[in-house]
Amino acid sequence: MKLFFAFLFGSVLGSFFGVIVDRLPLHQSIIWGRSHCTSCQHLLSAFDLIPLVSQIFRKFKCRYCRAPIPKLYLILEFSCALTFTLAVSHKLTSIQALFTLMSILLSAFDSRDHHFPLSVWLFFTLIFMISFPFHLVYLCWIVLALLAERFSLNIGSGDFLWFFTASFVFDFFHQMLILEIACFLGIGYYLFTKKRNEIPFIPFLTIAYLALLLVPQIL
Ligand SMILES: [Zn+2]
Predict the structure, then answer these.
(1) Ligand 1 mean position to 200 CA, how many Å?
(2) Which of 78, 76, 46, 80 shows the shortest CA–CA distance to 63?
(3) Which residues surround ligand 1, an ion (CB under 5 A)?
(4) Where do the structural domains in the chain lie, given as residue ranges?
(5) Where is the Prepilin peptidase A24 N-terminal domain (predicted)?
(6) Is residue 218 very low, low, confident or very high in pLDDT (cuts 50, 70, 90)?
(7) Is 219's pLDDT higher than 60?
């Protein structure tokens, strides 16, 4: 029962993450205002907002205008639900779960709009800085982020900021391992999709981080 409620609470949080991803770039309130279909603007009823269930039941289509609902919302709800379930079953520590949630949310922004919301990163990172031991060496990542803003380093400043927060979870060796795995995945994605535009890198960093975290436990 405890795991069921963890899954349920996680899916609700994932649904809220979907609201943040939708509204933050438009400078709309993430607390106030009822949810609506972004295609026909019809207000959604309680039955349209049940995490995971509504989307699957409606076959990923708005029931008013039949416009397709992006799978991103389902991925957000499921991954957050899974994170909470793993945390409650002690497969993830609180610091790992918190970093996973931050990475999921930043991945959603990056994959959809190639956007790195500084406010979201700051919100989570301040919690890390207040709650967990902080070492000055972590600031190297901030310096690299500032350099990436000034010069073209072929890696976004947001990716360096992600590593700054990752420093609270993994040591430098493991961070380099994450970078290697993410680069490998990114190259695979580039070759497979032949997409010539900018590749969102935070999702690959997140997958690499989760692989490093969970695979040793599974094996
Ligand atoms: Zn609609």
Answers:
(1) 28
(2) 46
(3) 37, 39-40, 62, 64-65, 67
(4) 1-91, 92-219
(5) 8-89
(6) low
(7) no
In the block, residue with structure tokens 């994959």? 111
How far is it, in rounded angstroms, from Cα 136 to Cα 130?
14
Residue carrying the six token digits 């890390």: 128
Sign, CA dihedral 11-14-16-18, equals negative
Q: CB of 135 within 8 A of CB of 142?
A: no
Measured in degrees and rounded to the nearest 5, phi and psi for residue 6 equal -65, -45
Q: How far does the chain reach from its first CA to its final CA, in angstroms?
A: 27
What are 69's two structure tokens?
């609902």
**Gap between the Cα atoms of 19 and 13, Å rounded:** 10
pLDDT at residue 129 above 90? yes
Tokens of 198: 């900018």
Residues 185/208, Cβ–Cβ less than 8 Å: yes
CA of 39 to the centre of ligand 1 (A): 5
- In degrees, rounded to 5, the angle at the alpha carbon of residue 202 between the alpha carbons of residues 198 and 204 is 90
